[in-house]
Amino acid sequence: MSDTIEERACELAVYMIETGATVRAAAKHFGISKSTVHKDLSQRLPKCHPILYEQVRQILDQNKRERHIRGGLATRKKYKGC
Known about the structure:
Elements: H1 5-19, H2 23-30, H3 34-48, H4 50-80
Helix pairs in contact: 1-3, 1-4, 2-3, 3-4
């Protein structure tokens, strides 16, 4: 993990862009909370690296559009054991 908050925000953004990871997956990968990931990407990243922010914003929007599908699949798996 990097030394400064700005570096951490950039590392998180690059990881999410390369892997298409969710906020939850990125938090688990870096060992930090989901709240920290979200704050880094939505508040800190636009100030220090706006071009990177635009790219990660697309990933965040896509994940937001798909989250109800992932939730439904998780519920199905829980109750059907599929």
